[in-house]
Prior knowledge:
Blueprint: E1 5-8, E2 11-14, E3 19-25, H1 32-45, E4 50-56, H2 63-73, E5 77-82, H3 88-98, E6 103-106, H4 118-126, E7 131-135, H5 143-160, E8 172-175, H6 176-180, H7 192-198, E9 203-207, H8 222-241, H9 245-274, H10 282-311, E10 320-324
Parallel strand pairs: 3-4, 3-6, 4-5, 7-9
Antiparallel strand pairs: 1-2, 5-10, 6-8, 7-8
Amino acid sequence: MLTIFFIFDKKIIMENVNVSLVIPVKDEEGTLETLYEKILEVLESLNLSFEILFIDDGSTDRSFDIMKQLSQRDSRVKIVRFRRNFGKAAALSCGFEKAKGEIIITMDADLQDDPKEIPKFIDLINNGYDVVSGWKKDRKDPWSKKVPSKIFNKITAWLTGVNIHDFNCGFKAYRNEVVKNLDIYGELYRYIPALAYSKGFRIGEVVVEHHPRIYGRSKYGWERLIKGFLDLFTVVFLTRFLKRPMHFFGGLGLLFFIVGFLINLGLTIYKYTTGALIGGRPLLLFGVLLMILGVQFLSIGLLGEMINNVTHGRKKEYLISEEIGFE
C-alpha cells in the first residue's frame, strides 16, 4: 500500500488512508484515553496510515470533551457528534460514510475489544477476505449474556448460511467497497456479514481476545435479544426473497390455502354424508380465515420491510451537531 505523508505544524496530512477505525461511543469517558493509546501503539508499529473516527452517539458524560482533546493532539482523530442517541446502526452508517480507509475496522469503545488483535484482521483482508468477523471464543461476560448469544448465533448461522460463530461481535474488518455497498438501519448492523454474503463478498472469521468490562455498564439486555430475533427474520427475507417475493408469499399462501381447503373439504364431505348443518361451526370459519388473516398479517409486515429497505437509503437516520477533524 503506497501512502504519502506531509507534515505541517505537527499535523499529518495523508493522501491515502490505509486503515479507518470506526468506533461508536456512548458514555465511555473512562476508556477513551486508554483505547486511543492502545490503537496508536498497534497501528504505528504496522507503518500504515490510519484515521480514528469516533461517533458520539448521544453521550451524556465527558466522552465528547475527551475525544475533542484527542483530536486537538492528533489530526488523525476525527469526531462526529450526534444530537441525541440514534443507535449503533446509525453510528456505524455515519462512520462508514465518512471513512476513507482501504480497510475499515469497527470496534467497541469499552476496552473489551483489544486493539492488539487488529493485525489479524488486516492480514485476513490482505489474504482475500472482504469481511472478517471477530469471534469472542472465551467470552468474559455473565452466563445470562453468553447462553442466549450462543443460541442466537447458532440459529442465525443456520438461517443465513454464513458459517461464523459470533454475529454479535462488534470487532470486524471490511474492505471499503463492502461498506459502501451496504445499507444498514434499525438493528441490522449485527447481520452485516449475512448482508455482505448475500452480495457475493467473501466472509472470514478470527478468534479475538475478549476482556471483562471495567468501566461503565453494558447497554444491552434481553430487549436487544428479542429485537435481534425479529431482525433475523427481516435479514432472511431481504437476502433470500427481496427480488423474488412471490417465492415467499406464494409459498405461504399455498400452504394456508391447502390447509384451509382441506378443512372446508372435510366439513363439506361431512355435511353431504350425514346431512348435518355446518354453517355455524367455528371450524368452517377457521378454515376460511386461516388463509386470509395469516397471509394478510405476514404480507403487511414483510411488505413494509421491503418498502423500508428500498426507501430508507434516501435519508439519513441521524442528525449531526458538530464535526471535528474533517477536511
